[in-house]
Amino acid sequence: MLSDATKSKLSIFEIVLKGTIIALIITIPSIMAFLLSWFILDDFMIAIILGGIVHFIAMGFGLKISKKILLKK
Q1: Burial 60-72 (b: 16+ CB within 10 A, else e)
Q2: What is each CA distance from 17 to 23, 28, 34, 38, 56, in whole angstroms?
Q3: Which pTM does this prediction carry?
Q4: Whole-angstrom distance between the N-terminal and C-terminal Cα of the chain?
Q5: Integer angstrom CA distances of residue 47 from 13, 42, 54, 62
Q6: pLDDT values of the chain reduced to their tens digit, one per residue, 73 residues
């Protein structure tokens, strides 16, 4: 971990902006997977399961991305 002397703080605007970007990265793929699978397969439960799987995969990518973009040098 970095000590307090070596890192500077993010402003509120930067935190909100970067948090919104990460939220979009996580939610848009899962919503699209849900809607596409629902319309193509015409089965609501399978669409929910596929959307959930894509959501957890996107959360893994969101964690990696957040570690990179939320650190200020």
Answers
A1: eebeebbeeeeee
A2: 10, 16, 26, 31, 22
A3: 0.73
A4: 13
A5: 36, 8, 11, 22
A6: 455 555 667 788 988 998 898 999 899 999 999 999 999 999 999 999 999 999 999 999 888 888 887 776 5
With vertex at residue 34, the alpha carbon angle to CA 28 and CA 40, rounded to the nearest 5 degrees, is 130
* HSE-up (13 A, CA, CB side) for residue 42: 0
Instruction: Answer for the pair 51, 37: CB distance below 8 angstroms, yes or no.
Output: yes
Write out the two tokens for 48: 């929910």
Residue 73: CB atoms within 10 A of its CB come to: 6
